[in-house]
Amino acid sequence: MQLPKGVEWAAHALVVLDVAGGRVVSSADLAGVFDLSPTYLNKHLQKLAAAGIVASVAGASGGFRLSQPAARVSLDDVVSALGSAAPLFQCNEIRCQGAFIDQKTQILASGLCSINRAMSRAEDAWRASLAGTSIADPAAGLDNATRTRMLQATGLDPDPLGPLVKIAIIGATGTAGRATTRSARQAGYDVITLSRATGIDLHTGEGLTSALDGADVAIDTSNPFPVSADADLVATFRDTTARVVRALPARRR
What we know:
5 strands; two-stranded antiparallel ribbon
């Protein structure tokens, strides 16, 4: 099995559009980021537009932009837009041919071919994996240098909002933390991720001061429940928040 190379091209182009933050990028400029054929890429972008993934903007300054948040566009959406909805494996029921032609009725009545079932399970798992990965996921993993280079290659201003603000996100590995980190990076902010995995302990304050050095803003998405069952929940939240405030550089409190 081999997917058309257009899937790779389209997926990377969508990442660039996500980084562009809603700004319109021409197919020629998108192609230029990766040295691709503008004509060939434009054909794939038109298919994405037909699927409602991107919007086509006419005019001299026209091009393409995402028509919905990148987090709502899965890799499965991209594959479906550029490929076929038909199953990858086509069962022709050859088990009912040749030496078994006289048993065709009984064989078909016994249910799906075991090979067909196995192939269908494998495709379902593959599709589910693609559906669980959005365009926002690879975009969120890009560092600021890569984002800047992408935007410069498209001719867009990589810093339209002025100097980058450095944001420290506490509890970055949690559900809320991951979403906040992704949104902040998509907006072009320099992000510091803090969690227990990076050596931060909100209950003791260990590692906070050094981790927050240079941060302009701290967003606490953590959920520091008490370490003991008899501890006061409200007091725990109050104390951990106070530790964060004390750890911030004095000029930024």
